[in-house]
Amino acid sequence: MRHRQAVISRAKSCCEYCQSQLRFAMDPFSLEHIWPRSRGGKTTLENLALSCQGCNWFKGSRVEGVDELTGQIVPLFHPRQQSWTDHFAWNPDCTVMVGLTPMGRATVTLLQLNREGLVNLRRVLYKLKLHPPVL
User: Fold this and answer.
1) Does the N terminus or the C terminus of the chain have fewer Cβ atoms within 10 A?
2) Alpha-carbon distances of 80 from 17, 48, 93, 97, rounded to whole Å
3) Cβ proximity of 31 and 2 under 8 Å
4) What CA–CA distance (Å, rounded) separates 12 from 9?
């Protein structure tokens, strides 16, 4: 795809949702349509995000999720329109991603951003001083 290198570079080779690093991935990353093609989304740089296979699979064609704290249906995090640090933070040992806002919490839940394998990888990489990636 003609946009692949531009998207990887812009994302600093990290999943724009869970912040997994491409260099440690077991599977290739995808160019994910933030606004899905099934909903009229276009294949443009503004609508593409770098996504690990897990995040891409859990997101699918969804654009909304439920904030478990309030029960509200809210939009999911949009990497082109929002800043990751406004909606997410790491716990003290950087193994668990914490949603700071309704959007962040809904995204953490729906995309399962604290999947067991991710948490385990983060733990190892943190001890090696290779996580979290610099945003």
Assistant:
1) N
2) 11, 8, 27, 19
3) no
4) 5
Q: Is 134 domain-assigned?
A: no
Number of domains in the chain: 1
Helix (H, G, I), strand (E, B) or coil at 67: coil
What is the distance between the alpha carbons of residues 13 and 23, in angstroms, rounded to a whole number? 8
Looking at residues 90-108, what average pLDDT do you find? 98
Supply 46's token pair. Answer: 């503004």
Residue 88 belongs to a domain = yes
Question: Going by C-beta distance under 8 Å and a sequence separation of 6 or more, which residues neighbour residue 9?
Answer: none
Tokens of 63: 């654009």
Helix (H) or strand (E) holding 51: strand 48-51
Cβ atoms within 10 Å, residue 74: 17
pTM of the predicted model as reported, rounded to 2 decimal places: 0.95
Within its chain, how far is the Cα of 32 from the centroid? 10
> Quick check: is 132 in a domain?
no
- Which DSSP helix (H) or strand (E) runs through 97? strand 97-99
Tens digits of residue pLDDT in 49-86:
999 999 999 999 999 999 999 999 999 999 999 999 99
